[in-house]
Structure of AI-2E family transporter:
Amino acid sequence: MTSSLRPLLPLIRQRGLMLAWLGVALLAGLLLWLLAPVLTPFLAALVLAYALQPAVGRLQRHLRLPRALAALLVELIAMAALLGVLLLIVPVISHELPRLREQIPQLAARINDGLAPWLAQYGLSVRLDIAGIKAFVVKYLDASGEDMLAALLSSARIGGSVLLALVGNAVLVPVVMFYLLLDWPMLTGRLRRLVPPRHLEAVCGFAEECDQVLGQYLRGQLLLMLVLATFYTSALALAGFELALPLGVFTGLAIFIPYLGFGLGAALALLAGVLQFASLYGAGAVLLIYGVGQVLESFVLTPRLVGERIGLHPIAVIFALLAFGHLFGFVGVLLALPAGALVLVALRRVRRAYVDSRLYRG
């Protein structure tokens, strides 16, 4: 009996090893699911550190800077760039608030004068309370900075845990990112030593190919943001928008956050158009410009500038965005293309292994 089972021992060991690795993968997935709220800032810091660590290496090599100083400089520059993008909203808000205070009561009066008589023909008596609207505008839009700060502090009591989590993540992510940038060579070296020597060449080759593809994705994404920022700025300027530059640049750079960035940019542009032109021209121009921009981004620029750089067919790019968005929501849309690039690298290697196998060659 023992001699008859001896030829099957390698197969049994291989199946047992596969089941062991499958159990480890399931356990890791369960831990990720349970610890997702805790791991979120660490994963964000890891992604940012991965994107910024080549710049740290260049500073360290070319300027002979200590790695700690290079990591600190790169992180400060990245944070300043992010803050600069957020501050693009400030001139829009500061420019539009006075107009908003003036035109909301006028807009309500126009609605009363134009819409109320038309509705009265159908037996509907609808009139806006102009006095109440003016009181609301005076109360909330004429508030000083101190009043707004007091309102924010009082509302923080309601969502204190959310505010605390946001502040904690805002502090935790830069700290974790600094230490990851500082210790990146040591961490990658330790991971390399964990790989069995007989598999080291294959694993390192796979990691290098993934790194190359993700680098191409980041470069393609940056080029996409630059093209869209130029398009929106030029189109809004040609349409006569006074805030074309901050609106266009903010929308183009915020495209990196799918849907949310575009939606916020479109909302700010729509507000600016309605308040500047006080007619349907402003809203129509924004709808036309942002509609054309969305079509160009989804069906032309993203498949060409991002998809071709990472080797994904345009149809595969659209499918990845829809599939990951359906499965994982907003986070899935954000990670669709880089995850699709990694899957593509794995599929290439599986295909090569299949072509070289006895099963394919017969």
